[in-house]
UniProtKB/TrEMBL annotation:
Protein name, entry field: protein-histidine N-methyltransferase
Record-linked Gene3D superfamilies: Vaccinia Virus protein VP39 (3.40.50.150)
GO cellular component assignments: cytoplasm; nucleus
Any GO BP annotation: methylation
Keyword DNA damage: no
GO function term, MF aspect, one: protein-L-histidine N-tele-methyltransferase activity
InterPro entries assigned to the protein according to its UniProt record, in alphabetical order: Methyltransf_16, SAM-dependent_MTases_sf
Length: 375
């Protein structure tokens, strides 16, 4: 039963709460969902306190927060490039809830986001526990256009990652490749507003991807009683024991492939490139369902531009692919493609639609390019 008293407290504090109807929830059949429009369940204005108390950017180390066991289920991603679908396994949302309950008072703030009838509480929680439709579109686009073919040695950033389905897909591709001599360093950075999202769903999903990949074979062989090294089937729900040996094997696999995974929580305004060990721009920048609110567009656009090279674009000769997966309009909040395009143009950027569908709610994938200052 939901704790409606907690929701009432949030309303009294002046938090504006939004409800999406197009999320992909673990507790229902993904194929039966009606992806509709955004609904505002409470028209109370966002308080000044929420607007000014944005979470500062900080690096998170979610490996230390994993529970002893996690459960997972398949996520089917339709691919337009062929008649098949890609199946990736992700952590069950109910399992993340169970972890929070078992941790008690330490996780009360995160628990309210599972129990709340809203999907968004601006400035407090930004919907990261749910898998959003446009993240699947982004995987479909990357697969269909061969953008995942040359990932090794690249610098990759996913903003507002949440369950990190695009990064799950990219890591799935990277871990399937053979190890080479002098393996170049591949950097994957993931950002979400809430640290609890990174701890409860983002990293667990990436570990599950590793478990299903050839990179886990030596670990699986060492754990199997019958000398088998077969990876689990991602299409079958199951559980995974998070042992010290598994953590070590996961980190060793990344090290062998020279893959660096780093996680950052906090607001886009405070994202600090000074903590990135010299990384000032990325080869691939991805974000899904992040332009739903007009108020947050300036900070997102500024960060996208900086991640693509910013004022050093000429000096670095940066050639970043920046992809934004989105619905055309987010009804009730005012966000959407038109406002985002205007915000990008004000920063001397260009927006081009590279993929779209009109099935259900109109959705697009936008490619964003930038012109250096002074040109």
């Amino acid at each position: 039963m939901k704790d409606f008293s907690r929701c009432a407290i949030m309303e009294c504090r002046g938090l504006k709460m939004f409800k999406f109807d197009f999320d992909i929830d673990d507790e229902v059949d993904d194929q039966t969902l009606d992806f509709g429009s955004l609904k505002i369940t409470d028209d109370v204005a966002v308080s000044a306190e929420v607007k000014t108390s944005l979470h500062p950017c900080q690096e998170v180390h979610p490996l230390d927060t994993l529970p002893p066991v996690i459960s997972y289920s398949p996520l089917q991603i339709p691919l337009s490039s062929n008649a098949n679908s890609l199946v990736l396994a992700r952590r069950d949302l109910f399992d993340a809830r169970f972890q929070l309950i078992s941790q008690g008072d330490d996780q009360k703030n995160a628990m309210q986001f599972f129990e709340s009838p809203s999907d968004l509480v601006p400035g407090v929680y930004e919907g990261g526990f749910k898998t959003w439709e446009c993240s699947l579109d982004l995987v479909n686009y990357l697969e269909g256009n061969g953008e995942s073919a040359c990932l090794v040695g690249k610098r990759i950033l996913e903003l507002g990652c949440g369950t990190a389905v695009p990064t799950m897909y990219l890591l799935h591709k990277i871990l399937a490749l053979p190890i080479t001599e002098n393996q170049p360093k591949t950097m994957i950075h993931l950002q979400d507003y809430n640290a609890s999202v990174l701890e409860l769903v983002t990293l667990p999903n990436l570990i599950i991807v590793w478990l299903m990949s050839p990179a886990s074979r030596s670990y699986l062989k060492s754990e199997a009683e019958d000398d088998s090294s077969d990876a689990p089937d991602p299409s079958k729900p199951s559980e995974l024991n998070i042992t010290p040996e598994l953590k070590t094997a996961f980190l060793q696999s990344l090290q062998e492939r020279n893959v660096s995974l780093r996680f950052f929580s906090g607001s886009w305004e405070t994202f600090n490139f000074d903590i990135l060990d010299g990384t000032r721009w990325y080869d691939l920048v991805l974000t899904s369902e992040t332009i739903y609110r007009v108020e947050s567009l300036p900070s997102l656009v500024n960060l996208l531009r900086s991640a693509c090279g910013g004022d050093q674009m000429i000096e670095n000769e940066a050639c970043t692919m920046c992809l934004v997966a989105t619905k055309a309009v987010y009804f009730g909040v005012g966000g959407g493609i038109n406002d985002f395009t205007q915000a990008v143009q004000e920063k001397k950027g260009r927006v081009e639609s590279v993929w779209e569908t009109t099935a259900g709610v109109k959705r697009k994938i936008l490619s964003v390019t930038w012109q250096p200052e002074g040109i």
